[in-house]
Design a protein that fits this description.
The structure is a single chain. The protein has eleven helices and no strands. With 209 residues, the chain is an all-alpha fold. The N and C termini lie far apart (90 Å). The chain folds into two domains: 46 residues, Arc Repressor Mutant, subunit A (Orthogonal Bundle), CATH 1.10.10; 120 residues, Tetracycline Repressor, domain 2 (Orthogonal Bundle). Keywords: DNA-binding. This is AcrR family transcriptional regulator. Pfam families: TetR_C_16, TetR_N. One of its GO terms (molecular function) is DNA-binding transcription factor activity. InterPro entries: Homeodomain-like_sf (IPR009057), HTH-type_TetR-like_transc_reg (IPR050109), HTH_TetR (IPR001647), Tet_transcr_reg_TetR-rel_C_sf (IPR036271), TetR_C_16 (IPR041678).
């Protein structure tokens, strides 16, 4: 007797969203997708990363990536939030005594950039933003909402939003020269020496009326 006749044949697979299993769906799968997206964007940049590539790295169906995160732009936004998670603490570094706020901010940011684990994904995201307008819009929005608005809320000075942007722009410019372009002598300078030089300037942005 054949398998079909005995009724033991495997039913045909239905089209649509993948069947839910402990390995292909649920929080664990979502976390794998997010980590895979972070790694793919960091290694390949925005333009060369695809939903299919993220799904392959996460070992899930591409439909599941769309289910959890939506479009490629939305996946990128979720991934850079993960990448920029250490930088989200900048407002906390500014919080507290006005004295030394500029140095605390500079030391906090250079601590992130000097750590290879956090520096490499940050570099990749910044390069993506420089070459792709969609990536730039997503990154700009995330920095404004998650960092600059919070930091401005900590500043007791006129035009706090403008001051926060000046401070951030100062540090981003140095990061571009030191870590992206690698211009000397900036690239090989000691981080402590840079902090000592830029700290007073950031202090003026953050605290002087």
């Amino acid at each position: 007797m054949t398998a079909a006749a005995s009724g033991s044949a495997t039913p045909p697979r239905k089209r649509g969203r993948p069947a839910r299993t402990s390995t292909s769906d649920g929080p664990a799968a979502r976390d794998r997708i997010l980590i895979a997206a972070r790694n793919e964007f960091a290694e390949r940049g925005y333009d060369k990363t695809s939903i299919r590539g993220i799904a392959k790295a996460a070992e899930v169906d591409p439909a599941l990536v769309h289910h959890y995160f939506g479009t490629k732009e939305q996946v990128f936004e979720a991934a850079i939030e993960l990448i920029f998670a250490p930088a989200m603490g900048v407002p906390d570094a500014v919080h507290g005594s006005r004295e030394g706020a500029g140095e605390r901010m500079a030391r906090y940011m250079f601590g992130i950039w000097e750590n290879p684990v956090s520096r490499l994904p940050l570099l990749a995201v910044m390069r993506s933003a420089l070459t792709n307008e969609t990536a730039a819009v997503v990154l700009r929005g995330m920095i404004e909402r998650r960092v600059l608005v919070r930091m401005a809320g900590e500043l007791d000075v006129p035009n706090p939003e403008f001051r926060a942007q000046l401070a951030a722009g100062h540090l981003i410019g140095i990061a571009m020269l030191r870590y992206v372009i690698r211009m000397e002598p900036m690239a090989s300078a000691e981080a402590d020496d840079i902090v000592a030089m830029v700290g007073p300037t950031l202090q003026r942005y953050l605290t002087e009326s």
